[in-house]
Amino acid sequence: MDPQSKNLNKWQVQNKLKPLVIASAADPIEGECFGKLLDGVAEWVDAVHLYRHEQGVETPVAPSLELAV
């Protein structure tokens, strides 16, 4: 969707993906709904980075099955 972007992170969702999705809305209510959904996606992306990148240990802890599912 954005050839210049190489990583998926909270900033990318909020500043690149969210405006594209909102622009596709059929009406203002749908646009507001899309915006709130993408805010949630941005928070989810930020949260999973704790497992992917930010543990700061040699042997990282894997997420539980409950969290992964």
Tell me what the structure shows.
The protein has helices at residues 10-23, 28-52, 65-68. It is mainly α and 69 residues long. α1 (10-23) runs antiparallel to α2. The longest helix has 25 residues, at 28-52. The mean pLDDT is 88.
Write the layout of secondary structure elements.
Elements: H1 10-23, H2 28-52, H3 65-68
Helix pairs in contact: 1-2
The helix/strand class is mainly alpha
Shape: elongated
Strand content: under 5%
Number of helices: 3
Termini separation comes to 26 Å
Q: Output the helix-strand order.
A: HHH
Radius of gyration: 15 Å
- The number of strands is 0
Helix proportion: 55-70%
The biggest beta sheet reads:
none
Mean pLDDT: 88
Name some characteristics of this structure.
elongated, mainly alpha, single chain, 69 residues, 3 helices
Structure summary:
The protein is an all-alpha fold. It has helices at 10-23, 28-52, 65-68.
